Amino acid sequence: MSRAVVMQLDAVGQPLRRVERDVTMPGPGEVLLRVAACGVCRTDLHVVDGEVMASLPIVPGHEVVGRVICVGDGVTGVAVGERVGVPWLGATCGVCSYCRAGQENLCDKPVFTGATRDGGYATHITAVARFCLPIPERFSDVEAAPLLCAGLIGYRSLVMAGEGHAIGLYGFGAAAHIVAQVARWQGRSVFAFTRPGDGEGQAFALHLGCSWAGGSDQMPPEPLDAAIIFAADGALVPAALKALRKGGRVVCAGIHMSDIPGFPYADLWEERSIRSVANLTRADGLAFLDLAARVPIRTITTCLPLDQANEALAHLRTGALHGAAVLLPPS
Ligand SMILES: [Zn+2]
Ligand SMILES: [Zn+2]
Predict the structure, then answer these.
(1) CB 41, CB 64: distance < 8 Å
(2) CA 1 – ligand 2 centroid, Å
(3) Distance 326 CA to ligand 2 centre (A)
(4) Which residues surround ligand 1, an ion (CB under 5 A)?
(5) Helix, strand or coil for residue 109?
(6) How far is ligand 1, taken at its centre, from the CA of residue 88, in Å?
(7) Which range is least confidently modeled, 1-10, 238-247, 270-279?
(8) Taking Cα atoms as reference points, which of 173, 210, 174, 216 lies closest to residue 193?
């Protein structure tokens, strides 16, 4: 078996380090994949910054598209040569009250790809076969990668936002650029909020069919039925509340956010609500990937070689990228 190359986080706040090591063989119920592409998600930044708990050292990356090159004992339904996706939810306990109630996203003993189990900033990855997702044929490896978290979490957030027509998206990065396309396809109006003064980001949002784009310090031209916050800035929660109609919802889609400042109760009153979205279920994955192929979603990506993972994270931090960054391992 050949050697693997991974980009590994040894300690919080440090750059990822290129490590060459033996390929790990799949255990029972696992598959070994040759990674074809891995998306770069904001959660990876939170892992590097220590804002999301990880088991160090860790290889980040949870938008992994790869081909199965070896299957472990007891694996059914996945065969050598197949292309699959490995998302954030790497495994669950299957027995806790949440797992039994169909809320595996809230499992008490979850395994998270790229945080508590090595992820896809690598040439090879092992994954629990039952948590791998099929990738619709119409998407290339690169196109599919951002669907696996940005798309999936965005989709779950959009479902939580309800059936309303006017949807606001705060933070117009990888997730919003996918959700905007789904919401437009569903016949809704999308209002995009970027960092104040980000004319390029606003033009990008309008190009994707948003009805309006402005700074997060601006009010939309009409009250929103729901707002989804993808940016990690807690100050956006009261800002988004102010933009809602009566009975409207704010959905916080991120895994980490800065503290939410105080705000007048009057802004929440009239049955407005705030909720968060955590992780994903396999059912979300199957539903979203099927939908993504039917829309079809067009992901806008910037590819970098695997050994430039630190540069990709730096671009994400400064908001220099429109769409999603995708890492490509050497072939
Ligand atoms: Zn569980
Ligand atoms: Zn993610």
Answers:
(1) no
(2) 30
(3) 12
(4) 92-93, 96, 99, 107
(5) coil
(6) 15
(7) 1-10
(8) 216
Mean pLDDT score across all residues of the chain? 96
Cα four-point dihedral sign 283, 286, 292, 298: positive
pLDDT in tens, 162-210: 999 999 999 999 999 999 999 999 999 999 999 999 999 999 999 999 9
Q: How far is the CA of 110 from the centre of ligand 1 (A)?
A: 6
Name the one residue in this structure whose structure tokens are 């189990």: 117
Give the predicted TM-score (pTM) of the model.
Answer: 0.94
How many other C-beta atoms lie within 10 A of the C-beta of residue 261? 10
Structural domains of the chain ordered from first start: 3-148+280-328 (3.90.180.10), 152-276 (3.40.50.720)
Distance of CA 24 to the CA centre of its chain: 26
Distance 14 CA to ligand 1 centre (A): 32
